[in-house]
Every structure is written in C-alpha cells, then in structure tokens.
Specification:
This protein is an alpha/beta fold and 352 residues long. It has 9 helices and 16 strands. The strands form 5 sheets. It has a 5-stranded mixed beta sheet with strand order 1-4-5-6-9. A 5-stranded mixed beta sheet has the order 10-11-14-15-16, with no helix packed on it. Strands 2-3 form a two-stranded antiparallel sheet.
Length: 352
C-alpha cells in the first residue's frame, strides 16, 4: 500500500512543480469531494454518484478574457502498461460529470472560486508516466482500429458527456516532458545569469477582436499556449549580484526567449516563425535580444541547416531591409537538452 500511495503522489508533486513556472496559481485544498446535485443524471447502473472527486485545483487569469480559468484537476500517475484507451476514457467520463456538477454547485463555488464571480470551470486530466517509458501521443488512443473488418475501439469524443461550452484538457506524458524540458532550461539559464528568477511574463499580442487585459508583466502561459507550437517569454534587463565587486551587474539585455515545439524538418517552419516575429514588431529593434530554443523531443537531425536556409530565404524576402536582416541574423538559435526525469517511489515516500 505504501508504494501505491507514493506512486499516486508523483503526479501531484510534478504538477505543482511544473505549473508554478508557468505562473499558475495552485489552491492548497486537495482530495476533497463535493456533493453531486444532478441526481439520476450522474448515476450509473451499478452505483449512484453521490459525490465528485477533486484531486486539486489550478487557476490563472486569461489574458484575453480577463476571467479566471479554474481547472478541476484529476491527477493520474501511471506506468506505461496502464495507459490504455479504457483508463483514459473512464477518467474523461468522470471528469466531464464532475465539471458539469461543479458549474452549478454552491459547495464547489464557495470552496474553490473564493468569491470570484467572473470565472470558468474546466476539467484537466494530468497524466504522469512515472516509469518514463510512454513515448506515444494520446492521439493514438482516439483512433479506432480495424478488427474483424470493422472499426472498433478508440475514444469517441462525441460520447464524452460534455455540455456545450464545457472543456476538458488532456495533459499527456509527452506534454509533461515538454514542460519539464522548458523548466529545466529556464533554471539552467537562470543559474548562468541569462534568465530572470521571477520577472518574466508570457507574451501575447493584442488581437483585432480581443485586447489584452490585466498586467502584461505577469501574464501566465495559458493551457492553449503550452499546447501550441511555440511560446514567447518576455523579460526585462537581467541583473545579477556580483560577489567579487559586491555590486549588481547587468548580465543580459531585455528581450524574448521563444521555446519552439516543432521538429524543424523544413525551412518553411522557420520562415513562418520569422513572419510571426515581424508581424509582432519584434524585428524592429536591436535593443531586445531574441533567443529561439528548440524544445521538441525529436528535432530533425539537420535542423540547424534548415534554420540557416530559412534566414537566407527570409532575408531575400525582406527586399533589401538590411536593418531587419541584421536583427534576424543576430537571433540566437539552440536545440536544448531533453529532460526525462523518473521519480523513485522510495524517495517520494521519505518526504515529509
């Protein structure tokens, strides 16, 4: 029982460590069920659903909507052989019923919304692969297979009992690995004096129909941004304390760190990225340094050549704009080391 309990704690420990770096808030209330108020609608043929589980709660304020996004989170820690279509489907079913009930539950609102009137409840299934052996995307679990000439199996999204407007986010093992890789790199850069400890924010442009809300200096990484092909982090000038001179010293100019989650197998990927940077007015100054750091788990073997080719193509596309061309060539480009940590159940058990 002790080892099983320790395994269950792993997803809790990993999720708490991860999301604080992405500026999510974590509520300390854990493993506290709330009463179901849907009656027969949420009952099963074998056992009435009298309560719904809440493993933990994460939340942030959406930069565009201005409302709090509150994640009713189901934490799972599985070994590779336990991650199956049935286990993920059952967890999604349970989570769908939970957030359906949470949306209208006064008990849930008082406990987790904490007085906020402008919020949205979503479900999040966080799956940590504690043996580090699962290297497949969850998309495979949704694909039906041919058996006896018929399509069978696979998770049918249309069968998950979500009401219109409700959302469940799946944080699969590969996404967890991607986030851990980014965090490890941020920590490494910080130790080298090349990334701030806390004074950074995730960058979002003003859109035509959606303007940014709140403090742009503290915007979090939304779940959509984390799941996307890249994320841009904006930081101010980085100053560190020099032990030799006993005075602060500037270690890095202000700028942007872009974590890139594509394999870079074609130069077109990077020309598209350069277009994005140009549209965001990020190629108009030399005062803000741009660093592109590839965090994809399986980058293309010759990705650096594709990147350099893309610079040549895009420089020609600029039509003689030498200033932008110089800014483009000054971008730092690196493929970062992958992080694939595996917790020991014994180590988790010793923590107090």
């Amino acid at each position: 029982m002790g080892e099983t309990s320790n395994i269950a704690k792993m997803a809790e420990k990993v999720s708490e460590d991860i999301f604080k770096w992405f500026k999510w808030e974590h509520l300390p209330i854990k493993d506290l069920n709330f009463t179901c108020h849907k009656g027969n609608l949420h009952s099963s043929s074998t056992k009435d659903k009298k309560t719904h589980p809440v493993d933990t709660i994460f939340k942030y304020r959406d930069p565009y909507k201005g409302k709090e996004i509150i994640f009713n989170t189901d934490l799972k820690s599985y070994q590779k052989t336990s991650i199956k279509t049935s286990s993920v489907r059952d967890a999604m079913w349970s989570l769908a019923k939970t957030i359906d009930c949470a949306a209208g539950s006064e008990e849930w609102r008082k406990r987790y919304a904490l007085g906020s009137m402008n919020y949205e409840v979503r479900g999040m299934l966080f799956v940590y692969n504690h043996d580090g052996q699962y290297d497949t995307t969850f998309k495979e679990l949704f694909k039906p297979k041919v058996k006896g000439g018929k399509l069978t199996g696979g998770i049918k999204i249309s069968n998950i009992p979500l009401r219109e407007g409700q959302k469940i986010h799946l944080v699969e093992p590969l996404l967890v690995q991607y986030m851990r890789t980014i965090i490890s790199d941020m920590d490494k850069l910080h130790r080298e004096g090349l990334f701030p400890e806390k004074k950074y924010s995730f960058y979002y442009p003003d859109l035509i129909q959606h303007k940014l809300k709140g403090d742009t200096e503290s915007h979090p990484a939304t779940i959509e941004l984390i799941s996307g092909p890249y994320m841009i982090i904006k930081h101010a000038e980085i100053t560190k304390w020099c032990e030799e001179s006993c005075a602060p010293v500037v270690r890095h100019q202000p700028g942007y760190v872009i974590y890139y989650n594509q394999d870079g197998s074609t130069e077109l990927e990077f020309t598209y990225l350069f277009d994005l940077l140009s549209n965001l007015q990020m190629l108009r100054t030399k005062e803000e340094k741009i660093r592109i750091r590839v965090a994809h788990r399986k980058p293309f073997a010759d990705i650096s050549s594709n990147y350099l080719t893309a610079i040549k193509i895009y420089t020609h596309k600029l039509g003689g704009d030498e200033f932008k061309a110089e800014v483009l060539k000054a971008i730092e480009f690196d493929v970062i080391e992958q992080t694939k940590d595996i917790f020991s159940t014994n180590d988790i058990g010793w923590e107090r």
